[in-house]
Write a structure and sequence with these properties.
The protein is of the alpha/beta class and 400 residues long. 46% of the residues lie in helices and 23% in strands. It has two domains: 201 residues, 2-Layer Sandwich (Alpha-Beta Plaits); 163 residues, Response regulator (Rossmann fold). Strand 4 and strand 5 form a beta hairpin.
């Protein structure tokens, strides 16, 4: 009996220690709230097999980062919030979708999914230019209640619940470079006006129990069903900033110190034209500079860029900076430089080129200095630093 009592006391002490240990080492803690929202998963296809054949570790990192970073930039530009990346997948949600009657939010969400598919050729052009294999991926989305938790180690929010689980599971039901949505999301959007742009095909569904199937739909944008063309990509590049994105940026700005606010506000009003006949390079510049807060308009056709510039009512004040490639068909960067300067002598122009011709450019072009030439390939930090430096040093006037 004594041994039994001692064992009982020992077990009690062990349970007490384990209880204290569990409380002290909780990795996640759930909030007292849940929410309804539209969530999305974008997952690479066969990335394990693809990366197993890449023997350079840096190349493996580059392969993942090009894809994940591009998807994250696109998601944020459409008002989504990134939850996390899980290996080769990115998980995000649309915070303002808690109101299922807010058609604008769901329209933005579907445009986000479509754009993610649309830019695949650009992503692959960038990958291939770095001797990396092409990527394919699947997108899944659904709507429902999620539980919100905070990670102790990362201090970031995470989402849990059946909606998250089902969205992850149905991802594999999408065709490579395709989109599927769950039945709950379909029921919300099917009556919205923008839904006429899409075709939906009901799949077999996802099994959620004995003889129970959750409906799943393949979504296809009618405008891109026939394929992707450069005009569609250009339209994305030149699409104006949505009111939602302006609101998000205004909120972020309000949280900055006053001096930082003034500098950031200048960025929001700074307009930059980028001209490069390589769509992957153009997409990179557009994304990097837009995320930094600049208002960017991009053109793959230098003649179209010149036509646009000529038609401006006041070209000298419309753009604070032009970033031009040098080697382009029909109208190269040097020719474009002279024609723009003839129209607007005070317009600031920089070059970004893979050619090692900095000395030649500075000797033959007026107002061009070494600091005005960026050498390809260019890294994000270097590009942003150069643009910031040139705009700040020239004390440019920013119009609202």
């Amino acid at each position: 009996m004594r041994r039994s009592l001692e064992n009982s006391l020992d077990n009690s002490r062990i349970d007490e220690r384990l209880s204290v240990f569990d409380i002290a080492s909780e990795e996640i803690s759930f909030h007292d709230r849940s929410m309804n929202c539209c969530i999305g998963f974008v997952d690479m296809v066969n990335s394990t097999k693809v990366t197993a054949e890449i023997f350079d570790r840096q190349k493996v990192g580059q392969y993942y980062s090009v894809f994940i970073n591009t998807m994250a930039i696109l998601a944020k530009n459409y008002g989504a919030k990134i939850v996390k990346n899980a290996g080769d997948a990115l998980i995000f949600y649309f915070p303002e979708s808690s109101d299922p009657a807010n058609e604008t939010v769901f329209k933005d969400a579907f445009e986000c999914f479509t754009t993610m598919i649309l830019v695949r050729d650009i992503i692959n052009a960038k990958l291939n230019s770095n001797n990396l294999p092409s990527v394919s991926y699947r997108i899944s989305a659904d709507y429902g209640r999620v539980e919100v938790a905070t990670s102790t180690s990362s201090k970031s929010e995470d989402l849990f619940g059946s909606t998250m689980n089902i969205c992850a599971k149905i991802n594999s039901m999408a065709e490579p470079n395709g989109i599927v949505i769950g039945g709950d999301l379909y029921q919300i959007v099917k009556s919205f006006s923008f839904i006429d742009k899409y075709q939906f095909r009901e799949s077999r569904g996802y099994s959620i129990g004995f003889s129970q199937w959750y409906p799943v739909y393949t979504a296809l944008n009618k405008n891109t069903a026939a394929g992707i063309d450069i005009n569609s990509i250009n339209q994305i590049f030149r699409s104006p900033e949505t009111p939602k994105i302006r609101d998000i940026r205004a909120k972020q700005q309000s949280q900055l110190p006053q001096q930082s606010q003034q500098k950031q506000q200048q960025k929001y009003f700074a307009k930059i034209m980028v001209v490069d006949d390589e769509p992957d390079a153009l997409f990179t510049y557009k994304c990097l500079l837009s995320v930094e807060g600049y208002n960017v308009e991009a053109f793959t056709d230098p003649q179209e860029a010149l036509k646009h510039f000529v038609q401006l009512s006041d070209p000298s004040s419309h753009y604070q900076l032009l970033l031009l490639d040098v080697r382009m068909p029909r109208l190269n960067g040097l020719q474009l430089f002279y024609r723009i300067k003839a129209i607007s002598p005070n317009t600031k122009i920089m070059f970004c080129s893979a050619l090692d011709i900095a000395e030649e450019l500075t000797s033959i072009l007026p107002d061009i200095k070494y600091n005005d030439i960026i050498r390809k390939p260019v890294k994000r930090e270097y590009l942003v630093s150069k643009i910031n430096s040139v705009l700040n040093n020239n004390s440019l006037h920013f119009d609202s």
